[in-house]
Amino acid sequence: MSKNFDWPVGSNDAKERLGESFSRLHLDTKILASHAKPLTNVDPVVVPIYHSSTYRFKTIAQFDEPNHGSNFVYRRCGNPTTENVEVVINEIEGGAGSLLYNSGLAAINAVFWEFLGSGTHLICMSPIYSGTSSFINETLKRFGVEVTFVDVEKEKNFAEAIEKSIKPNTKMIYFETIANPTMAVPDVLGTLKVAEKHKILTCIDATFSSPYLIQPLSLGADISLHSCSKYIGGHTDVIAGVVTVANYEN
Ligand SMILES: Cc1ncc(COP(=O)(O)O)c(C=O)c1O
Description:
By secondary structure, this protein is α/β, with parallel strands linked by helices.
């Protein structure tokens, strides 16, 4: 073979790992176990789409290591493809970390379930995206979360109206900028100032602004979230959501 085309053939990782015992396996088992060596020194410019739900462990000792000695174990717990999106979005948002979800509403659900519970009080801008308000009204309330809506279109001073709604058990102030579908823009800085004064968590759904145009965390919000199904996806071919946090203290 010419030197220019001297390319090593792929090797069977299972055969190398199992050694002599591999040759004694039934053909069906050989086919099932055989796979090329995982990439170690290759860095594809376009991130591959990893479909695998689970990952192999090299040894039993690796299984016993913390997190099984691997970043990736099971799809629900993490995936190299989505991690790449998380890294890029976190960079735009300037956060401590981002997590990608199956939809924008899944991301919103995750935030509410994580921080709210029976006996806590949520202050929420209205009107907001219909899926979010349905979830709050039809689901969150059933689980004992108290909710006060503050109408961004009726209140002359939105931040002041938010402050008046604060109760001793207020846990979170949630609003959108720009709002879907009204395109209302609340007083973001004023509202964040009120939240800071009363030490209340803030979560901003900035889907309609996109993280390119506004980075809520840099303005002082604790949590920023997006439906990636809009500007982040950009081509009407993606359903996803992302949550970015300013820090891990909460
Ligand atoms: C502002 C806003 N937040 C959340 C969502 C929900 O996102 P998804 O459709 O990705 O679940 C939408 C969807 O239209 C939205 O406009």
